Structure formats: C-alpha cells, structure tokens
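Objective 1b: paired records.
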Amino acid sequence: MFNNRNGAKNDHRMNGYRKPARYSALDLIRHGLSGSDWPRAWHAHDLRRSYDVVIVGGGVHGLATAYYLAKEYGITNVAVLEKGYIGSGGSGRNTAIIRSNYLTPEGVRFYDRSVKLYETLSEDLNFNAMFAQRGHLTLAHSDSSLRTMHWRAEVNKLEGVDSEVIGPDDIKRLVPYMDTSENVRYPMLGALYHPPGGIIRHDAVVWGYARGVDAYGAHIHQNTEVLGIDVAGGRVRGVRTERGDIATRVVVNCTAGWSTLISDMAGVRMPISTFPLQAAVTEPVRPFLDPVIVSGTLHVYVSQTDRGELVFGASVDPFTSYSMRGSLEFVEELAGHVLELMPSLAKMRVLRQWAGLCDMTPDFAPIMGTTPVAGFLIDVGWGTYGFKAGPVAGETIAEIIATGKTPELIATFDLARFAEGRLVGEKGAAAVGH
C-alpha cells in the first residue's frame, strides 16, 4: 500500500488541486441568456497504461474512495472505471435515505460517522447535496417490535446517537396524516424516532464527489467495462477493460449487483446473493410529510422529496435475480400497505416505478477491506443501505490503501468473519429499515 514516511496526511495544495469553479448569479443569467456551453464538471481522459489505484464502480462508494485518497493522502494517480455513466447503478436507483440508528454498536458507530460526513458534505465539496435532516421514524406494531425499538434506542444512546422511543401521540404530532388509532389492522404501539435522519439528493452527491475527484486530478472513465483482473503470484497485477489493459497493484471493488462477478475475476469468492429492490414515486403534492416513515411489519417506507413527490419502497424481492424491471404485484401490495398507514393518500397517482440490485450478505452487514489476494480490496455487500455509507466507506477504504492498516471502525466487516463465525447480526435494523 501507500505509506507516507511521516505518517501525515498530505496538503492538497501540493498535489495539483484545481478548485471546482464557482458561479455567481450573474454567471447563471449570462449563460442562460447567451445559450453558451457550460464548462464540463469533470473531464474525459485517455486511459493510461498504468495507475497506482484502479477503482471499479463509479457510484458514490467508488467516487468517495478516489476523493479521500486524493484529499487526505495525496494519491491522485487513480482511475475510477464505470461501465455506464457515473451513478447509473445503485447510487442512481436508491431512495436516498440517511440515518445511523442501527442495532449493533459496530453498525451504529460506522453509520454515525457517515451521517457526520454527510452533514458537512455540501461545504466540503462546494456543491449543494441538499441534505435535509427531517427525522426518521421506525414504527412498532407489536410488543416484540417495540422491544426491539427500545433495544436499538439504548444502543444508539450508548454510542452518542440521538434516538428515542416515542408513543402514538408523538407520532401523530410529527405526522398528522398518520392513522394512529387503535381500530386498524396494525395499530402503532410506538416508534423509534431518530432526529438526525433524513433524505439527500443522490445525484447531487455523485456529481459533487465527481467534481472533487476531477479537481484533484484523478481520472473518471465512463463507459469502460472491466473484463478481467490479472492476478499473478497471489497479488493483483492489472485490469483488462474494453478500452485496453491497465497495469496496477491495487484494485478496489466498489460495485453493487455485480460485486461477485468482479471478485470472481480476482479469484475471491464471497457469500453474497443478489436481489432486486423496487421503488415507486407519486405525483408531486404540497409538502406535508417531514420525517421518513418506516414499517418493518408492513415492509414499507415512505418519504417526501423537496419537489413534493412521495417516494415508496419495500424490502427486496423474495428471489435472486439480476432483473431491474418493476412489477404490478409490487405496486399493488405497496400501495395497500401505505394506505394502511395514511388512508388519505388514496387518490394520489403513482408516476413511475423502478428497481435496483442489492447484494445481501448472511448477516446483513457489508464486506470491507483486504482479501486473500494482495492488492485486491472490497467494499461490497451493501444490501439496501449502501448509499447511507458512501462517505465513510470511501474514507476508510482510502485509509487502508494509503496506510496498509484497517481502521478499527470497519475491522468487524472483514471477509474472514464468515469463515470464523464472527457474524455482525444487523438484520434487526437493516432488512427494511430504510
């Protein structure tokens, strides 16, 4: 890996940093009236024959890794390879919910660091990511579910995360349109309320990181599919792409949906199964819903965007597949569950639906860090919760590459835990806990 002699982080001013352009109101008007072309937010480059680091996957995880490699450690001879356009995979298909109210201490600490990074991301990247911390409600419809909420709340508090269990009256105060009466099929006994949670513009996060990566001089290669990974003597030697071969000693797998296929190229097998995850969005209406609403019992979650649309989702489909087509069955079931929570939404029209791919691990926690193949790192297995972890995943993977040491924050997420029986057990807060 890359070790700085004094162990200090590099000053970006020493590394050819090009600060992203800022535009005034007059610049916006001038461009709008003249019809002139805007400068590219990031540049197209010829593919070099060699890079210090090659990152496979141009979503938030891959871009964040490249960004923190450059910003914190001055490692800029980096290529981010994306077979489509950046953000065209899971980063562009998720429902952009951010939270840290997980169940295990390891998970809470990890995601809380990501929330902290998201809170300052717009300032750090000089790009408005539109993070709205409106709160996050996980509903409890049974005694056992309510016990789990109390469990999660206590773990959160021990880790310094703002979470508490509230009753039906407080739920009604936060969401007046919610049916909190007792004369329903699934009465609400309480909820885990997490004020720091909220939503963010996923495309803005991707674009902001891409601008930052480009400003530091690293290369983003869109429409560049990886065809193979060359391994010799137990370590990575290069990457084969449809545009040519690249020599490198470090490859990072930051893909979703195809993570097992990329790892197989390096001879690394992983306990991951891929499932479709569907979502839908309604016509825009006047804002009325502040918190994100989640019901694990009903397998549904809903939030409202800044433009007024309601975004709905559920748990992953009950079968493994690489299909990203929506289904009528999904929309019918989802709409029924949403109406059990908020009957007044009955006349709202669904505009569209879509699906993405989720790589699920046996313990519903990610797989991060080194592998038996030297120089081949993984940041995969994110299930339905990968976008929440983008900044902290990039930060910690960059640290491994730069220092050769695994940060304590992600030590429990290693690949070896499955063979050694050290499962994390995050299903209680990750299965549909968007």
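Objective 1b, second protein:
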Amino acid sequence: MPVKIRLQRHGRKGRAFFWIVAADARSKRDGKFLDKLGIYNPNTNPATIDLNVDGAVKWLQNGAQPTDTARAILSYKGALLKHHLAGGVRKGALTEEQAEEKFKAWLEEKEGKINAKKENLSKEEQEAREKALAAEKEVNEKREAEYKAAQAETEAAAVTEEDEPEADAAKEVDAETAEEAKAEEKKSE
C-alpha cells in the first residue's frame, strides 16, 4: 500500500485550511487517512504550521512519499532534516546527541528568521498606519482651512450687505441735497 503525506482540505470557501495527513495514495483527497500529522493555515501571515515532526519522520522512514506542497512544509518545519540526520545516525556517521544538537541549532536559527519576519511585518503595519494617519490629518487640515475661508467669505458678504443700505441711504441724501441746491440756483436766477 503506497502511503502519501499530503494535505487534506478543510474550512469554508475562500478560507481554506489544511490538515497534514499520511494517507493511502488511492484514497480521496478529503477521504480516509492513516494518521493526522498536523495543520497548515495559509490565511495568516506568516502561515500557521503545527506539525508533529517525530510522526512525520516515522512515516518518512517507513517509505511515505510527500507531495510537493507537503514536502515544502516538512522542509520548512525541519522534518526532512531530522529524517536526514536519522539516516546519518543509522549509518554511523553521527551519534544521536550530535544529530539532536544539529537539529536544535537549526531550529533556533529558523526561529530567529521567523521572529525577524514577524517584527518586519509589524513595523511595516505600523508605518502604514502612521502614513494613513498623517494623510488623514492633512486632509482634515485642508478641509478646515477651506471651511474657514468659506466662513470668512460669507462674513465679508454679510458685512457688505449691511453696509450697502447705508451707502444707498447716503446716496439718497446726497441726491436730495443736490436737487435742493439746483432748485435754489434756479430761484436765485
């Protein structure tokens, strides 16, 4: 019975997550499986992977063949490296302690890379928030300046409307005095 380490799809439409399983190659994608090895959630950044490394190594040693995506996940979590180191122990090239030390050193280095990526993502998120806030403040200041300018125009228009009746009244008074002056001139002639 050929065994494959592959992904089994779960979740809703557009939000899939996967189980990493060891299954008979002839079974359906989402059908029966022999052993559940972990989960893979690509919806998060970075992707969430929870893998039973020892279980995966056991299946690899028994001849299970991973699919391409499963191989990438197993490599990412170190299962393939541990399988390789176990082969070196069987051949006598390494002792069990040396293999375990190499694996732990690799895990620490990998953790450092993952943490650096998470920090970089959080910095980028923070910078994006700060840019959005600065742009929003700029738009608000522009709107406020436009509002104040419009308010000043309406106040100026209101002041001129108030001054115009007085100016009209002054013109009427000037016109009346001019007429009186003309009438007096005609009388004097």
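The chain has a mean pLDDT of 87. The longest strand covers residues 3-12.
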